[in-house]
Design a protein that fits this description.
- The structure is a single chain.
- The protein is mainly alpha-helical.
- The chain has two domains: about 1-115, Phox-like domain (PX Domain, 2-Layer Sandwich); about 130-330, Substrate Binding Domain Of Dnak, Chain:A, Domain 2, CATH 1.20.1270.60.
- The protein contains nine helices and two strands.
- It has helices at about 30-40, 65-85, 95-100, 105-110, 115-125, 135-185, 190-255, 265-320, 325, and strands spanning about 5-10, 20-30.
- The protein has a two-stranded antiparallel sheet.
- The longest helix is centred in the last third of the chain and has 66 residues, at about 190-255.
- It is a peripheral membrane protein.
- This is Sorting nexin-30.
- It comes from Lynx pardinus.
């Protein structure tokens, strides 16, 4: 018997292509994966938002654990909102079906839909054509994506190492605090101060646990999403290169037989139109992606700064709170 998680999706819309003002459906991860594949097929010139990794979410092995399900829910929700905010993808018929169909499997079994044929034209453009060189603006985009993914990958690895060290430190603190509490039972006059130190270490442990959870649940997922985003952008850039290579090859073939056919063939003009469409859509999506990235990372870094400040404030407050307790005893004692 197969066991899996489903997510309830509620959609409210006033668009004319929706028959009802509100829908509520349940979808599993593989349905989201189907949607993304369909968007790639039918909208090959556009950047499709990435899905969270199928098996690795913040290092949790148990895919039925509460932490895994909640982290994935947030990521899938962000995936749908990215599509909804896109001026082209949000009107895609497959997206409409995903949000409204009660039986999505029946729709999947219908086979290749007409809209998918648009993507097939790009699939037929294989590596048989060799690109001479990218235009400077797209070469710059490719270089930027390579560097961006490299930097984020380094930050992600270091952040995971920091989290691991924080967890190890947290384990030590949880063993460290009770020692003072046990010791207090053997000391009459020092019992109260020792209990105070134990409580203080316990408060610091709680603050550290909250900081670690914030890093794991809020910081790392954004890094990984944008690493996957850069891969998606590279994929679109590669498709654009294939169309340009095809256009260049067809143009060269026409030039060789120019004396026989002075007029540019229709298939060459069609290929040129497709390349220009790719260029326009890619540049528009890149600009939109950069805008979203600036906003997301501004919020991410500000949130990280606030969480760290709160952590140190809680630790400082905990240690300051026991100072009067330590100063209560007469100096002679």
């Amino acid at each position: 018997m197969e066991t899996y998680i489903t997510y309830r999706i509620t959609t409210k819309s006033t668009r004319v292509e929706f028959d009802l003002p509100e829908y509520s459906v349940r979808r599993r991860y593989q349905d989201f994966d189907w949607l993304r594949n369909k968007l790639e097929e039918s909208q090959p010139t556009h950047l499709i938002p990435p899905l969270p990794e199928k098996f690795v979410v913040k290092g949790v092995v148990d895919r039925f654990s509460e932490e895994f399900v909640e982290t994935r829910r947030k990521a899938l929700d962000k995936f749908l909102k990215r599509i909804t905010d896109h001026p082209v993808l949000s009107f895609n018929e497959h997206f409409n079906v995903f949000l409204t169909a009660k039986d999505l499997n029946a729709y999947k079994r219908q086979g290749m839909a007409l809209l998918s044929r648009v993507g097939e034209s790009v699939k037929h453009v294989t590596g048989g054509y060799k690109l001479r060189s990218r235009p400077l603006e797209f070469a710059a985009i490719g270089d930027y994506l390579d560097t961006f993914a490299l930097k984020l990958g380094t930050i992600d690895r270091i952040a995971q190492r920091i989290i691991k060290e924080e967890i190890e430190y947290l384990v030590e603190l949880r063993e460290y605090g009770p020692v003072y509490s046990t010791w207090s039972a053997l000391e009459g006059e020092l019992a109260e101060p020792l209990e105070g130190v134990s409580a203080c270490i316990g408060n610091c442990s709680t603050a550290l646990e909250e900081l670690t959870d914030d890093m794991t649940e809020d910081f790392l997922p954004v890094l990984r999403e944008y690493i996957l985003y850069s891969d998606s952008m590279k994929s679109v850039l590669k498709k654009r290169d294939q169309v340009q290579a095809e256009y260049e090859a067809k143009l060269e073939a026409v030039a060789l037989r120019k004396e026989d056919r002075p007029k540019v063939p229709a298939d060459v003009e069609k290929c040129q139109d497709r390349m220009e469409c790719f260029n326009a859509d890619l540049k528009a999506d890149m600009e939109r992606w950069q805008s979203n990235k600036r906003q997301d990372f501004r919020q991410l870094l500000m949130g990280m700064a606030d969480k760290n400040i709160q952590y140190y404030e809680k630790c400082l407050m905990a240690w300051e709170s026991i100072i009067p307790l330590l100063q209560e005893k007469p100096e002679a004692k």
